[in-house]
């Protein structure tokens, strides 16, 4: 990024000088004043398109109206149409060279187009017209710095600092941030706040540094809360507050902050996009879709907005509309590998030949980022699998995994040690001594296992019952296990920390889990699902804090499970899936841990094999409902008819009637999965025949 690209110019609306050039007598003057007021209101409310229309209509009859030319320039700049704004402001300044703010505004329009040499004389004129304007001195300094006139820039900045010391101190801190000197910036902003505790810009920038460094997030939130208390209409502060709240896992509060930011700045596409993304992650896809529509309306050329909207439409089950958005994102940005992978992740979608050729062409681009390259490879694996060219599909999947593995962090030894600690700690004796103190609530049904093992199918079956709400993959339990030891001075962690628990603590943790899960619930149905596969190590903890919770372990043929994970590029987590041997080791640890739970908590966990479910749907649905204490309902057999948002990779598959095509799919890749067969052979030998023989 060049020095010029790091410089930003403000073009905030400047107040209209009172009665400048206006006569308050007569109908014509009143009509002109009314028109000006409408244009001003449009600018202040974030509707520059309205202001533009008002000004152009007036200028048709009165083309020499300097006020309307000026306001039209502002309206165009708010829409980032700087070249058009330049034209209008030049006409205005020719008609009224001494009109206040015109020189500064024309300088803004030129500077935003990087025409710094042309902007400098205009900022100099603005300084002569209003020597007390700190803003004009600042912009002059920025333009001089952009063309390398450093000494003159320093003089302009010094004048700016002298006239507005609070803003000047913030500007120094901002320069530290741009130069990567965050610690110096922190000291600068703290000093500015000692000098003026109500300096909202210093508070906001200090919070931004904390957020960037991911430190003192509580302080960052407090600073921004103070900013919006002092300046409740400061849209950027509300946006920043949303960012901090999101980082602190306070999604509902973040949604409120982003919503307020969009109310204050309805033409801020980024704020709409952030509102949409957070609303979607909180489980409100319909609201997210509406927010994405607004983001795209404001910023139609942002490819990322179209991709996000496509994700939400996929969650809502509207695949045609989802594909339209994905393809629009690709049209805007042909090297957008993540979008191609998103299309592949629809599962029941097939790429067109031209799209396959486009992806292969992109892989020849030496400037592709590593992440983008990986996205294209996984998408091409899906494309060639659909064409039944399994060897070529495997080559893309395998090379994609090999490139992804160095980009993530995972320690297989650490995982094995942790799983062994859990198994060693949760003995029958420990469970007998601690149980009976939890919160006896029957609402949660935990669906655990490994990804790509049929857990979404189990969830969809249960969510089709009149008494069950399907939520999503909740991180509440994992966060709870972390929070138990977060502030321990002795550094004890889960599971060892559980030895210090008092009887009352187990009940408190159960209530805390239910409170956390409540954020994701949208109905008053008595039962809800938590479908995070990675919860399997916490089954002992679940039993102690929520003794009446039901637990289902979704299983599938080990090779199909490993292959399904190896073909999946996860958005986050699941870092054990990108290496053949690490994936096999993880699977073995999972089986050891589940065998342990079956031994120490007999009958607590119901194993549901995918292959048995698709070959005997009614029988397995009956087992699932009985385990959960629910009466049989026919709707659970027609799970594919259930209308609900599904966020996982299987979202489209569970909207189809039951089919056996997913059984034994690993046999298509039999020449490539020999290592898994060798590693997992003993586990396969102990499986039911319908599982072992799947696909034959």
By CATH reckoning, the class of one domain would read: Alpha Beta
Spans of at least 5 consecutive residues whose pLDDT stays below 50 are: 1-29, 646-655
Summed over residues and divided by their number, the pLDDT gives a mean of 88
The CATH topology of one domain turns out to be: Rossmann fold
Number of strands: 5
Kindly state the percentage of residues in helix. 55-70%
* Oligomeric nature of the chains: single chain
Q: Tell me, what's the shape? A: elongated
Report the portion of residues in β strands: under 5%
Number of helices: 34
Strand order of the largest sheet: 2-3-1-4-5
Task: State the gist of this model.
Helices cover 61% and strands 4% of the residues. By secondary structure, it is mostly helical. Helix 1 (27-44) packs antiparallel against helix 2 (48-61), helix 16 (285-298) runs antiparallel to helix 17 (303-315) and helix 18 (319-332) packs antiparallel against helix 19.
